[in-house]
Amino acid sequence: MANNGDTRELKVLLVDDEAGVRSILKDICQRLLGVRVLEAQDGREALGLFREQNPDIVVTDIRMPSMDGVTLLKRLKEQDPMVPIILITGYPSIDVAIRGMKEGASDFLTKPFQVEEVKVVLEKALRERKLLQENRELREEVHRKRALERLNEDLHRKLRELSALYTFGETVSTFPLSREPIIQSLVESAREVIHSKRLSFYIPNEDCTSFRVVAQSPDGRDRFGALARRSREEEVLLQVIRSKRPVRVQGLHVAGSFLHAEGEEEGPQLAVPLLIKGEVLGILHASGKITGGDFDRQDLLFLSELTKRASLGLENQYLYESLFEVLMSTLRSLVSTIEAKDPYTKEHSQQVTEFSILLARQMECPPDQVDTLRLAAQLHDLGKVGVRDSILLKPSRLTEEEFHQIRMHPVIGERILNPLGFLAEEKKLIRHHHERWDGKGYPDGLRGEEIPFLARILTVADAFDAMISDRPYRRGMGFEEAYREIVRCSGTQFDPRVVEAFREAFHKWLDRRSEGGSLSGDKTAAAPLTSEGITEVG
Q: Apex CA 80: angle with CA 77 and CA 84, to 5°?
């Protein structure tokens, strides 16, 4: 790596009490950046090496014995305020970031390391080092006022870059997250720093000769989703597709090729590809500078860093979605296996899901709550995989011991999902979908508002489908009778607000059923409840 005009060898000090972590970072630094690496296993050793060797960059873990990374940061800044210091953390949080930034941290690295991320962060730190050194020199030469103002602008820009990259990193690290928010955040973060008149993200169509806009800055002149038709802009995008490299336009020239644009005012352009596994997923395109002039190398470097981070985020997102779908398919298969054993509960989970969503939308729940409820409803009886078939399929009344085992299926369902480490909200719904408003439900006897809101919706949907479904020990109730039973139990078994929504949703459900056919078969005949009441069905 170039040393930005400094004739001595660049040095990086790595501070971590884990030798394996230091070894990984040392290998990355030497192989990709060509710098000399110094190592220290704790803060005290790092202070001694810092005084003796005067490193250009310090990379330190936050969690270390005897002296943590933030304390070391403070001590090093007292010795040299200009040295860039990067903090390593395995537990990223806004509190850690704020504390580190207050003490002067330049950036953060999160375990486990991504090679490209380490390279980007260290390159930024070296540029920061150069800027800070120049700033110190220029302050000593007060007569060079114009240069000092220019450098101050660079520093302000650096702060904007750090802020934009940090904000964008927070967006990318949010899971689960669809592609659209990541791309929209990419466009907004880019425009905030490079001050482009128009910023758009284009995705090439299958033939890679035409493009469509999927995100753009608020004042973009193209309609969302429209094809890019400006001849000059299209040529820039096509060149990015062919070369898989950024293209910067100054005046009327693109990489030495003269481009004609009749009757059109020519402005600067900058196009950077977003690559995943070496293929162009999309192109971040900027045209025109609000401040006038051309896009410079700093603009290019910033957009390149931004798209690299977006690429890593999207790649992780695609992997997450693939693993998540495989896992959900496995869990749904378990539920289907349970229902296949018992013809009386066939498609029960699907019908409970449909009615839960209908109730949630009737209560104007936001989309994220609807998604949570959808997944929980699909898996709400997952715990029955741990109940013996002889109990599930018993055609006569259950004994007290057998009924106790049935009551354990919400707890078993939660336990099955616990090792996954996510689906926290869904697990609550699965555990509590047999709780009662009056506190007489199971497994925890929660009462009223103690019961998770979405679980109260799931309870009503589950009870309604259970009542209208045939069971080994009784025939299903008619729709109207089941409706009246839900309403009768408002304030005892069910949340009154949910029952009020059920009254409206029930009629919509009947209309949908009359238009599209029965979801549960013909239920014109009524069947009596068991002596335990509807609390025990489902």
A: 70
> Of 30, 31, 32, nearest to 11 (Cα)?
30
d(CA 306, CA 193): 11
CB 302 within 8 A of CB 191: no
SS3 per-residue string spanning 405-443: HHHCHHHHHHHHHHHHCCCHHHHHHHHCCCCCCCCCCCC
Q: Which fold has domain 194-317?
A: Beta-Lactamase (3.30.450)
pTM of the shown model: 0.45
pLDDT along the chain (538 residues), means of 10: 55 91 88 87 92 91 87 90 86 70 84 83 83 71 62 71 72 63 81 82 79 70 46 82 86 41 59 84 85 83 84 70 68 68 69 92 92 89 80 76 86 85 85 94 94 95 88 78 92 94 87 58 34 36
What CATH number is given for 342-536 in this structure? 1.10.3210.10
**Cα-based torsion angle of the residue sequence 73, 79, 81, 87 in order, rounded to the nearest 10 degrees:** -20
How far is Cα 40 from Cα 48, in angstroms, rounded to an integer? 9
What would be the CATH architecture of the domain defined by 11-140? 3-Layer(aba) Sandwich (3.40)
Q: Are 534 and 467 in contact (CB under 8 A)?
A: yes
**Measuring CA to CA, how many Å separate 113 from each of 22, 110, 119, 346?**
11, 6, 10, 47
Q: Taking Cα atoms as reference points, which of 467, 456, 462 lies closest to residue 500?
A: 456
